[in-house]
Predict the 3D structure of the following.
Amino acid sequence: MTIAQQIAFESFAMAREATAGTPASAPTHYVTAKGQVDPEITHDEPEESRGTLAKIYRSAVVNRQSKWKASGGLDLDLMPFLMQMLHNGALTAPTTPAGATLARLWESTRVMTSANTKFATLWFGDPNVQTFRAAFGGLNNCKLTSNVVGNAATKFDLDGFAQFMEAVSTLALPPQTAGDLVIPSDLECWIDQGSDAIGTTPATFRVIQVEHTFQPGLEPDKSASGPSGNRTWNRVNVGVSSPQTILTLYFDDLIDYDRWRNGVRCKVRVRHNGTFIETVAGNPSYRYLEVDGYGVLKAMTWGAQKNARTIKLTLDHAYEPTIGSDLRMACQNTKTTV
């Protein structure tokens, strides 16, 4: 009996490439989400005036590539790997917070003056039937959603590109580990302005939902590579982009409305708290992902939550001189390596 590839046995794993476009030797990280890699081929079939009703006479493959996507619960153990692909490939080691024994802090800002993101080799398939490998994998979008009034953990959605996937022999997969789920109601948010430092004024009992969208601004491109080049792209260009944070809050007063109305430059910090790590100097220390953004709140819209009025505001992150960037991210977990 022949058994087809089973979705239940499919795995999706990655490894960072030491040299962009050169496949890594073996997977090092599971993509701890539901995902897949999709191959794409573009044909050219030019029309010809040959005096018949036939539409196609000649066909040729002109482009091969892959697209990939994954959606699942935010994994704080995977985030340092994704941060390398998002905005700072130099993030290679954590620091140990003062007084901590187990906690490790992975902190970085988005690099502004060079293309510094890392790329990954992707492996996808059912190892009982067939595994596929795609090199030069990059991120197009990373979206995080924490819906406090919902019934789901904080989610992340990823999509990206890679060179054309090829059938390969199945390699040993990474250990079956994953970080704990992050619960939206455990998040903290601060909104500051003026001379107040970021992280000073908490938006306590106000936040309903937070969405972050990160786009590295990468564009895969092609150059002539000879008849053995597999007709796939072989270089990546980078353009400007803006991280985005969208806040939905209860409308308790005019504070946030007036910030939008008056075009006040704000400092927004969101900390997505995970599980407990240890006690440091008498205080609990948690796993978390922290996102800092600076700029003007825009695109105000009204909403409703169980008969209460809500307000949605969008922060398109602007360059902030004090950090030399438009984005700071910090992930605290217990990992000592990416």
